[in-house]
Amino acid sequence: MKTDDAFPEPIGGYAVGRTQMDVEYTASDHSKRELTAFVYYPSDSSEGKTTSTYMFSEVYEMLNDQPLVTEYLKKKDFFSIDIKTQCYDDLALSGKEKRYPVLFYVCGGGGSPEWGTVICTDLASMGYIVVSIGHQNSTMYKRKDGRLFNVSKDFSDVIMAFSEDPEMLALAGKMEMRPNDETAIEMCHNVLTLPILAKLTEYSELQTEDVRYVADYLYKLDSGELNSSFKGRLLLDIGMGIVGHSYGGPTSAIVCREDDRFTCGIGLDSGAFGLLDSDLKKPFLLLFCEPNYNMNAIIGANNSMETYYFSVERVAHLDYCDIVFTSVNEELRGERDAMEMRNLVTDYTKNFFDHYLLQKAASVESLAYDGVDLIKKTSNK
C-alpha cells in the first residue's frame, strides 16, 4: 500500500521549476515524431506557487489500454499519481549562475517522462537543467497541445515477444548471479545476437534520434534562434550528460556513442540493445540488480573509456524510478527503504556527472552504501 503523500524534499539548495515543451520532426525512417519534453531547472524561489501536477490523469488512465502493462501486472494495482511533487510550473530560472549544465533523463519503455520526477528534481535542485522526453510509440504522455500519445501496439508486441521468446527464456535460465567477466560477456553476446532483438533495437535508435533532436532544439534556445528564457543560459560547451532507466539505458549508451556533444552516460538496471560491437568512447556507469550483468557486460568490454559496474542488493527493477514512492503493489518493490534507494541513485548519478561533466573531484568509488559493490571498472584505452 502506498504510504507517501509527497516526494522527498530536494537534496540541493535551489527551488525547482518545471516547464513543458512540444517538439516535432521527421526521423530517419521518414516517420513524423511528435514529442513532448519536461524540463526541470534551478530557480531562486517558489514562494506563493503551487507544486506541479505529478502526472496528468489522462496519461495514467491510458495504462488500461496498454497491453504491455496490463498483461504484465494482470490487472493489479500498479502505482498512484496522488502524490505531491517538489517542483513548480514555469518559475524563473535562477540568476545565481550565468549558465547551467544540461542532462537528459530517459524513462523505461512503456513508462512516461514524469516517472523520473524525483531524480530530475534532485538534480535540478543541485544546479543542473534536466530534460525528460516523451518518446512516441514507446512511452505515454500528454503534449502541451493537449493530445495524448500511448505506447503503440507494435512496441508492446515487440517487448512481449522478447520476454516470451523461447531462446531468450532459455538464456535467462542459464544466467548466473555474479558471473565472471568471460561468462557474462558471452551471455550478453548471445542475447544481443537473438533475431528478436532487431526490432527492439530499432525503437532504441528512434529514441536516440529524439534525444539528439531535442539537443539540437536546446542549442537553438540557447543561441536565441528560438525565443525562450533559456537564451544564453545553457552551459553546453562542456557537453551534456544522459541517464536512462531500464529500456532507456541502451538509449543513453547509443546517444553517447553517436553524439560527441554528450560527454558521459548512465544506465539504471538496463541492457545493451543495439550495442553489440560498440565503443562508446565515453565514461559510462551502470547501477543494477543481479543477474543484470549478463545483459550489459559487453558495454565495458568494448568501451575505451571508464565503465563502472555497481551491483545493488535487495532492490527491484522499478525501484530505480518514482515507483519506489508511488507503488501500491508490494510485489513491485525491493527490500530497501524508499528514501535510502532515492539517496543511493541520486548520489551515484550526481557524483558521476559532477566528475565527468563538471570536472569536480567527486567520485562514485568513494560512496559507501551497504550491499552496493563495485564489481568491475574497465578502461580499454
From TrEMBL:
UniProtKB keywords: Hydrolase, Lipid degradation, Lipid metabolism
Signal peptide: none
Source organism superkingdom: Bacteria
InterPro entries, alphabetized: AB_hydrolase_fold
Designated name of the protein: Choline esterase
Phylogenetic classification of the source organism: Bacteria, Bacillati, Bacillota, Bacilli, Bacillales
